[in-house]
Design brief:
Blueprint (H helix, E strand, L loop, with lengths): L3 E5 L6 H6 L3 E3 L2 E3 L4 E3 L6 H9 L5 E3 L3 H14 L3 E5 L7 H15 L5 E5 L4 H16 L4 H13 L1 E6 L3 H6 L5 H9 L2 E8 L2 E9 L2 H14 L7 E6 L3 H15 L3 E6 L2 H7 L4 E6 L5
Parallel strand pairs: 1-2, 1-6, 6-7, 11-12
Antiparallel strand pairs: 3-4, 3-5, 8-9, 8-13, 9-10, 11-13
Helix pairs in contact: 2-11, 3-4, 5-6
């Protein structure tokens, strides 16, 4: 029996990609002034960014315990092995909730074969981990192989990103109010990365034009076999800059596989319009 790969909407993988690889995705919640939506199901990233530009501050909520219970139980009842690769536990309570439900379901279904994995990743960095696992599953890889390679990719996934306005990260508690104020005042564009699943400031760069160039330099410093690996770029409704970064990467490294997509509604509600994020492996694994 093939292995089912499960993720949540913070992977920022679009419907087409998920359907092609039979990936099951559970939506996080986006809460606006008038309603609660399911990320990627009945609200688009563009809608969230337009609301934020108009001054609204959407909130988000994790996948519900019942959604996990229904999904995990449905697979356990059928004897379907699956692996749930989760959004970073440092950015959401989704992983902890899934672990709680995992214990409940395994107590009821003693023979159920599944694991809940904290990827410590977000957006398309998380998405790349899920993509690789799903491709292996389609090719008939064993449970152990998918688990091992998925964990490896999660551990070695680099996240390098910048935001257009630090105020959005400050609202969500990702940076201090003082840092957001100083950044906006001096036209400083922050370069951030992920360290053990947390958002960590890396550098402060004056002016947006220098940011993409510095992202390429950091990629060169940290990346491995950049020509042949698949990388990803996600953007907060700024496709032009994302494509510009992709062109720079192709010119510098000859990279052939570059996946570009929106920063999804859940993560975008915290990072804001104009976010540009780059994801690649600092080591390679076939």
């Amino acid at each position: 029996m093939h292995i089912q790969v499960v993720c949540d909407s913070a992977s920022d993988l679009n419907h087409k990609t998920r359907e092609e690889l039979s990936i099951r995705s559970l939506p996080l919640k986006v809460i606006t002034q008038e309603a609660e939506y399911e990320d990627g199901e009945n609200i688009t990233p563009k809608n969230v960014y337009d609301r934020m530009r108009a001054g609204e501050a959407p909130k988000t909520a994790q996948v519900s315990p019942q959604a996990f219970r229904d999904t995990f139980t449905s697979y356990a009842e059928k004897g379907q092995p699956f692996i749930y690769f989760a959004f970073s536990s440092e950015l959401s309570g989704t992983y902890q909730t899934a672990k709680m439900i995992e214990q409940e379901v395994k107590e009821e279904y003693k023979d159920a074969q599944f694991d809940v994995i904290d990827t410590k990743a977000a957006s398309l960095g998380y998405g790349l981990v899920v993509l690789r696992a799903a491709e292996l599953a389609q090719k008939g890889a064993t449970y152990k192989e998918i688990l091992e390679i998925g964990r490896y990719h999660a551990h070695h996934m680099e996240h390098i990103f910048t935001v257009d306005d630090l105020e959005y990260l400050q609202r969500g508690g990702r940076v201090s109010k003082a840092a957001a104020f100083v950044g906006g005042l001096l036209n400083i564009k922050p370069l951030l990365h992920m360290e053990n699943g947390q958002l960590i400031p890396l550098e402060k760069i004056r002016g947006s034009k220098k940011v993409l160039k510095r992202m390429i330099e950091v990629m060169d410093e940290r990346g491995s076999n950049l020509k042949d690996q698949r990388i990803a770029i996600s953007h907060g409704d700024d496709l032009e800059r994302a494509e510009k970064l992709a062109e720079m990467i192709q010119k510098e490294f000859g990279t052939e596989q570059i996946h570009i997509d929106f920063v999804g509604a859940t993560i975008g509600a915290h990072s804001g319009p104009g976010t540009i994020a780059l994801f690649f492996l600092n080591d390679t694994y076939k």
